[in-house]
Write a structure and sequence with these properties.
The complex is a heterodimer. By secondary structure, chain A is an alpha+beta fold. Chain A has 2 helices and 6 strands; from the N terminus they run βαββββαβ. In chain A, helix 1 (13-22) packs antiparallel against helix 2 (70-81). The longest helix of chain A is centred in the C-terminal third of the chain and has 12 residues, at 70-81. Chain A is globular. Among the domains of chain B are: 9-180, 2-Layer Sandwich (Beta Polymerase, domain 2), CATH 3.30.460.10; 184-331, Four Helix Bundle (Hemerythrin (Met), subunit A) (Up-down Bundle); 669-888, no CATH class. Chain B contains 41 helices and 16 strands. The longest helix of chain B has 34 residues, at 867-900. The termini of chain B are far apart. In chain B, 45% of the residues are buried. Classes of the chains: A alpha+beta, B alpha+beta. Chains A and B meet through strand 2 and strand 3 of A and helix 31 of B.
Chain lengths: 112, 901
């Protein structure tokens, strides 16, 4: 099992979610985050004062998937989250040693 | 006073043998009776009786089995006392039981064992028990320092033990504690209650209220009762009413509200099997159907039920507040002695009222009523509660038509504009049922709930809260706060916020319904065309900014530009930003977070330069100096005048010129200005490699000829050039610097120098009056087919923005691009006897649209303020543009047909 953490542009959430649903990923956690990457903060001038958004608002989605669909999930996220401009985000993949469904106590892939 | 417990004898006997199952049986029986329709009060009284009997029986039993010493002590030196709600015989099915073991100092250890016996028994039955052991002295010492203890003991009721002891306690407690310091006690009560409001909801209109502790909950009723006991030594509502401290109507509505809440609470407890006080969505649906509220088209049964709930809780809360005010008011001051303000109103401290002899006249006059609220708002005064009551009941006899006077509209907009307490004044007007006379739709949304999990408040409350949030945002130190302060027509903003959700509760899309309501309201209030347009737009599109900020890419021009086009002016953009932020934050606590704010701000900052047509950056002295240095490096001749000369020249330019022009070009302009003689026209031109366009700068003085801008545009048109971007700058000293970026469809790449020179020379001749621009244009009219008109035509939009700039009227034009369009627009402006001071013209190639922002004044240099004239200007320009484009389309179609033959 793998944990996919993807940092994406906020307005891409619906597309990414729908894409993941289509390939059978039904659960995800979404968090409003702010971050700093190559996009940097944008610098805007406002009333003479430079208004710097040091951190850019992003969404983080966390998806737990079985190894078998990892590649498809990554491809789906990449395809839907892409605008081709700087700041499209990143996808992080890590190993998950175990998963337990609290309600039933099921473990492993059946708990996904 | 003891109601019949309604207990079958068998059940009581069983209670002694099998108390746990007896209690369960009793609860079950009561639940059935509640379903059969008995009141909440009866259920509580019956349960109180049942528990009383259990306790008394157990106490007597323990007494019988105790030693002699304990028997004496237990009947003479001690007693069991019911406190709190239990003391009042208001024991809800799963309420806590508060009891006190009152004893004399010499009662002895054994007596305490009796109490433990009772306690263990109650625990064994599964009750939550609050208990204490005190002497009379303890009570008198503890009570003043702790409001919970103090109030709990105010409802003390003897259960068992020495009646003498209890009598003595009661007498001393009421003399030494309750009867003392009514004022500070009521203040304390209100402090405690405010703490609860913070925790359980600042508003009556919570979508999932706590029936006990939310605003308007049973606790409000308790507060009123405690205050009445302290201030008037009256223990019951009836008592208060009999002695004239409570009006008959208040007594009736309080009793109804209390009984309603008691019943609801009993249902909640029974269903949950514990002291559940939250009226959740599920319970609302269940109770609505139990009370036989039927779904009607567009209004669910549950929504009707909750409207009733809010009506009761709101009434209860208001009555309580008024009652407490009256308790605190002290002796009535002579109204006559206080100074009258405005002939009718009297201000004493923070209170505003109308003397009784003038009341009838004020109540009958909508104008005066509005002035009353305006004064309360602007001076942050509190209107006398009795007066509000009178207004409320008087409103039933007044028609909405009486409120259709220009004075009412004027004062209402003044209330909306602030400064002062805008939201709270509106709320008082709403409570007094006066707001709905001005905006009739408010009657429909009173307590209208929104049955979804996003919103926390009812429609009317959400709306009023949003106005309050907008007021609060003005104090925000960030961008939104700044934007808020810049808004010039706060009245329109607040009115738009007030109306934005008024379309809710109907089958149709609430934005569309809201649009119609905004149009009606604008007509009722006598708004002019511009005001109406702004208001209708804000209400109709109140979701637009949030949708784009949260769901679309603001860096995508195809997203941004239509948004900009819809918003059109900076002032509308500012209003929309504040409305959006206020709307979101009024959905519930914490819904508008920094993350969402930053997305909104990002969109705002992206859109602002587009709608204002300028980079809004004030140039401080340092920036000017720095720029002067850069310019000096670019041109040695200009530097002859010294840095100071350059700096003083720069200081006369509008900011957007300094921001948007390269030092190199500024240097060229200054060189020309240095040479400029009276009656002269100088034209600078060069080819900008980077952009692939020719740039023409025309330098002259504004007194040379009227319509300079229009004439230059005419020359460009006659030459077949296409204007991509134009900036018109008129300096304060009358020097005109107009720059045009044009593309030349006749030449790919760099047009030959002769071509550029000939354009420049024509401009000079036309401006000097040596050649007539109109003749030039008509002679050189080209086949319009060289630039294809957009296949799908967009409606031309002309907007007047009279708010953004103090000195000029701003005309915003969005139209399909067509060869010669700018000349058509500027000629139209010239024909209207307007003079252009500044303009920013830009082509939106992505959309085949032009967006023009033109600052104009009348011929005397004054801003146009006459609404009829403004509307005529708007209509004329729009008509001229449409006519022009139609001609172009007709001509181009002619060409197509011609070539196909």
């Amino acid at each position: 099992m793998k944990m996919i953490e993807a940092i994406i542009k906020p307005f891409k959430l619906e597309e990414v979610k729908d894409g993941l649903m289509e390939i059978g990923v039904h659960g995800m956690t979404v968090t409003e985050v702010k971050g700093l990457g190559r996009q940097k903060g944008s610098k805007e001038t406002y009333r003479g004062a430079e208004y710097t958004t040091d951190f850019v608002p992003k969404l983080k989605i966390e998806v737990l998937v079985a190894d078998s669909i990892l590649a498809r999930a990554i491809e789906t996220i990449t395809r839907h989250a892409k605008t081709g401009t700087v700041g499209d985000g990143k996808i992080l993949v890590s190993d998950v040693s175990s998963v337990i469904r609290i309600r039933t106590g099921e473990t492993g892939e059946s708990a996904l | 006073m003891t109601p019949d417990s309604g207990l079958p004898d068998g059940l009581l006997r069983r209670a002694e043998i099998e108390p746990v199952s007896a209690l369960a049986g009793q609860r079950q029986a009561l639940q059935q009776r509640l379903l059969d329709g008995v009141s909440g009060a009866e259920v509580m009284a019956a349960l109180t009786d049942f528990v009383d009997k259990l306790i008394v029986a157990r106490y007597k039993n323990a007494l019988r089995q105790a030693g002699e010493e304990a028997q004496v002590s237990g009947s003479q030196y001690c007693c069991l006392v019911a406190l709190g709600g239990y003391g009042h015989r208001e024991l809800a099915p799963y309420s806590d039981i508060d009891i006190m073991f009152l004893h004399r100092k010499n009662a002895g250890e054994e007596a305490q064992a009796l109490f433990r016996e009772v306690l263990h028994h109650l625990w064994g039955l599964g009750f939550q028990v609050g208990y204490c052991m005190r002497t009379i002295e303890d009570c008198i010492e503890l009570a003043p320092g702790d409001i919970t203890i103090r109030t709990a003991m105010m409802s003390a009721r003897l259960l068992a033990g020495s009646p003498h002891l209890f009598k003595e306690f009661h007498r001393r407690y009421f003399r030494q504690v309750v009867g003392r310091g009514a004022g500070p006690f009521i203040d304390q009560l209100m402090d405690m209650r405010r703490g609860e409001y913070e925790k359980f909801g600042e508003t009556v209109y919570l979508l999932e209220p706590n029936v006990k502790k939310s605003k308007g909950g049973l606790r409000d009723f308790h507060l009123l009762r405690w205050a009445g006991m302290t201030k008037f030594q009256a223990g019951t509502l009836q008592d208060l009413a009999d002695r004239g401290f409570l009006s008959r109507e208040d007594l009736l509505s309080l009793t109804e509200a209390r009984d309603f809440l008691w019943r609801v609470r009993a249902f909640l407890h029974f269903e949950a099997g514990r002291a559940q006080e939250i009226l959740s969505f599920d319970e609302q649906v269940r109770l609505a159907s139990l009370h036989e509220f039927k779904d009607r088209p567009h209004l669910l049964g549950v929504e009707q039920f909750m409207q009733q709930y809010y009506r009761h809780t709101m009434g209860l809360h208001e009555t309580m507040v008024r009652f407490l005010d009256r308790c605190l008011a002290g002796p009535v001051r002579s109204v006559q002695s206080a100074a009258k303000v405005d002939g009718y109103f009297v201000v004493t401290g923070q209170h505003l009222t109308v003397p009784s002899e003038l009341r009838a006249r004020v109540l009958d006059s909508p104008d005066l009523l509005l002035r009353l609220f305006e004064m309360a708002g602007s001076r942050r005064l509190k209107i006398d509660t009795d007066l509000l009551d009178e207004i409320h009941s008087h409103m039933n006899n007044m028609s909405a038509e009486a409120f259709r006077t220009p004075e009412v509209s004027r004062v209402f907009l003044k209330i909306l504009a602030g400064p002062g307490a805008v939201a709270s004044t509106l709320e008082v007007m709403h409570r007094a049922h006066l707001l709905e006379k001005i905006i009739p739709v408010f009657a429909r949304v009173r307590g209208l709930m929104q049955f979804n999990h996003v919103h926390k408040y009812t429609v009317d409350h959400h709306t009023l809260l949003a106005v309050a949030k907008a007021e609060a945002l003005a104090q925000d130190p960030g961008v939104i706060g700044n934007v808020c302060q810049e808004i010039k027509r706060k009245d329109l903003l607040h009115l738009a916020i007030l109306l934005h959700d008024m379309g809710k509760g109907r089958k149709e899309d609430h934005c569309e319904v809201g649009k119609a309501i905004a149009e009606e309201t604008a007509a009722l209030l006598g708004c002019d065309e511009q005001e109406t347009r702004t208001l209708v737009f804000l209400v109709h599109k109140h979701l637009l900014m949030a949708q784009i900020a949260f769901q679309r890419d603001p860096y995508d021009k195809k997203i941004l530009l239509p948004f900009v086009r819809a918003v059109a002016t900076p002032e509308t953009l500012r209003k929309l930003l504040v409305l959006t932020a206020a709307d979101i934050s009024a959905v519930g606590p914490g819904v508008l977070n920094k993350w969402k704010e930053s997305l909104l701000i990002e969109l705002y900052l992206r859109a602002l330069p587009e709608v204002s047509g300028e980079q809004d950056e004030p140039a401080g002295p340092e920036r000017l100096k720095q720029l002067a240095g850069e310019v000096a490096r670019e041109c040695t001749e200009a530097a002859a005048g010294g840095l100071d000369w350059i700096e003083s020249q720069l200081g006369q330019f509008p900011l957007r010129y300094l921001h948007g022009t390269s030092p190199k070009q500024i240097a060229a302009h200054l060189r020309a200005i240095g040479k400029l003689q009276a009656g002269d026209v100088l034209v600078e031109e060069h080819f900008n490699e980077e952009l692939g366009v020719c740039e023409y700068s025309v330098i002259t003085r504004d007194d040379l000829t009227p319509g300079i801008f229009s004439k230059i545009a005419g020359v460009m048109t006659a030459q077949g050039l296409q204007i991509l971007d134009a900036q018109i700058n008129t300096r304060t000293d009358g020097v005109v610097v107009d720059t045009f970026k044009v593309s030349d469809p006749d030449y790919a790449g760099v047009p030959p120098a002769e071509r550029r020179h000939s354009t420049a020379a024509t401009i000079v001749r036309v401006l000097k009056g040596e050649e007539d621009v109109e003749r030039l244009v008509s002679r050189n009219t080209r086949l319009p087919s060289r630039r294809r008109l957009p296949t799908t035509r967009q409606a031309t939009e002309v907007q007047i923005d009279n708010e953004t700039c103090d000195r000029s009227t701003i005309i915003d034009v969005f139209a399909d691009d067509a060869q010669g369009l700018l000349y058509a627009i500027t000629r139209s402006i010239l024909d209207l006897d307007l003079s252009v001071h500044a303009a920013r013209i830009s082509m939106r190639e992505e959309l085949d649209q032009v967006a023009d922002v033109i600052y104009v004044t009348d011929q005397h240099g004054a801003k146009i303020n006459d609404h009829t004239r403004l509307e005529a200007i708007r209509a004329t320009i729009k008509k001229d543009i449409d006519q022009f484009i139609d001609q172009q389309v007709a001509a181009s179609e002619g060409v197509v047909i011609g070539s196909s033959k």
